[in-house]
Structures are given as structure tokens and as C-alpha cells.
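User: Could you check the structure of this?
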Amino acid sequence: MANQPNRKGSNETPVRRKTGVAQIELKSEAVYLHMRGQAGEALNNSLYRLGELFKMTNRSANKTTYNMLKEWFQNEIISIADTEIDKLSSHFESLQSELIPGYSFVDIKNPDMNLEINIIHKSHIQVINIISKIDLIMDDIEAIALSGTFDDDVEQSSRNQALLILNNISSKIFKVTKPGKRNGGPFSPVFFLEGLQKGVFSLYPDAEKESNVVNIESTNDKNTAEESVDKSVELTEAV
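Assistant: Sure, the predicted C-alpha cells are below.
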């Protein structure tokens, strides 16, 4: 019997965009369990959402919105994560300096901790690099913990500090893009970008709240302002 053709993807979940599948080999048990669970799924979903925004704005002749997203991503996601990783690294160094000699191992064996991550935009790769940096530091901390040189609560505190970096990435992306969910439906990148371009939505919602002061000079101005606020609330109300 002749070989049947390989129907690639016949049993796979369909994708909306051209997607690269990257496999990363993790060394930290904490990072691996985090990434394969709901928190890791949330991070992947947030990066997919951001990747769509990057791709859609990059195709536009006017790169203003794309450059806004790019600057926000670098300043509010990557730079902040790098700063927190530096703190985690300093924490590890302080643990090393206070080490009491513990049990000595001839080897430390890891289980299979490979993960597949879908990539639709290069911004995903930048976050994968962040995951890898955290993974290496936590691998060292976990190795020291095995030797019994410090209490379990020290390892738990280190784990919380590391995983908070990843949680903050997904939570910040979801918080900023949340207005793109209209009438209780799924996130609409088109709707979000339209609101962003018109100034209805902001990449810095907390700063907007602090500076959102309306001066009312007359009754007509008051009515106009109320209509504007009502429209804004309709578009940005949390779902």
C-alpha cells in the first residue's frame, strides 16, 4: 500500500496567524511548573495579544501607533523586568555569601522540562529571553536549597520573587488592553487600536486617571463634557 500523504495539522488546533513553535528547555522546577500551568498560559495569551497589535500597526503607513507600542513595551515590560531580574540576581548573590556548607552532591539531575511556546512576533522572543534569565537564577537557588543550607521559606520567598516578574508582564498587558473587550465579548485588536489612535484608550491608564481633570466653564460645556464622559465609559468599561 502506498504511503498516505502527511496531512500536517489535521489533528492540531488551527492558528489565526503564521506561528513559529519554539521549544525551550528549562532547568528550574519552579519556572517550569509555572509556565506549564494557568499562569504560563496567561502569559502566552497576553503575548499573543500584544503580538497581534504589533503586527497590525506595523502594516500601517503611519507608524505612530506602532512606535507608541514599541516604546511602551520596552519601557514598561522589558526594562522593568530586567530591573527585577537584577534584584533577583543580587538576592542569589546574598544567599551565596551567607551559605553554611551543606550536603555535597556529585550530580544534580533534572526531569524532562521542555516546553513549546508559540511565537507570532519577535516581542515573544524578548520575553523568552527574560524567562531564560529567571530560569538560570532559580536553577542555582534550587540547587543550593537541595543541599539543606537554608530553610524552605527562603526558597519559597525566592520563588515568589522570580515568578512575580512573569506574572507582572501578563497582568500589565491585560490591564492596558482590557478596554479592547467590547460588550462582554472577546478582545478585539481592531477596536482597541481605534480607541488608542483616537485617544479614547491609553497605554498608561494609571497616569491618565491622575491627570483627568475636567474644567467646566458653562452649562453648554458641562453637557458636552458629560456626553464625552458617557461615551468614554461605554468604550472603556471593564468587562
